[in-house]
């Protein structure tokens, strides 16, 4: 049976285990339609554009006005 010849130091052990706890930042790209920052493989939140088509219908501020305000 294999037995380690020397004890691993605390720093060596902790640095090895730290790789599992590491968080990565999401990839950010630029929207081709409006130029806003968008997470990769997601529809744009400001214009609803995804892969050369409109994937989401984004409500405009004008649609939320009451009839009395117009």
What does this structure look like?
There is one protein chain. This protein is an alpha+beta fold and 70 residues long. The protein has one domain. The chain is built from 1 helix and 2 strands. Strands 1-2 form a two-stranded antiparallel ribbon. Strand 1 and strand 2 form a beta hairpin. It starts with 9 loop residues before the first helix and ends in a 31-residue tail after the last strand.
Note the overall shape.
rod-shaped
Order of strands, widest sheet: 1-2
Q: Structurally, how many domains make up the residues?
A: 1
The secondary-structure class comes to: alpha+beta
Strand percent estimate = 5-15%
Largest sheet: 2 strands, antiparallel
Helix percentage range = 10-25%
Spatial extent as radius of gyration = 25 Å
The total beta strand count reads: 2
Termini separation (Å)?
A: 83 Å
In DSSP terms, counting alpha (H) and pi (I) runs of 4 or more, how many helices? 1
List the helices and strands in order: HEE
| Mean residue pLDDT | 84
The poorly predicted ranges are none
Topology of this protein?
Layout: H1 10-21, E1 28-30, E2 37-39
Antiparallel strand pairs: 1-2
Summarize the structure.
With 70 residues, this protein is an alpha+beta fold.
Write out key terms for the chains shown:
alpha+beta; 70 residues; two-stranded antiparallel sheet
């Amino acid at each position: 049976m294999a037995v380690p010849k020397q004890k691993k130091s605390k720093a060596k052990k902790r640095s090895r285990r730290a790789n599992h706890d590491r968080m990565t930042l999401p990839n950010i790209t630029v929207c081709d339609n409006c130029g806003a920052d968008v997470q990769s493989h997601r529809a744009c939140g400001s214009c609803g554009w995804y892969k050369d088509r409109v994937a989401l219908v984004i409500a405009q501020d004008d649609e939320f006005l009451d009839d009395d305000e117009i």
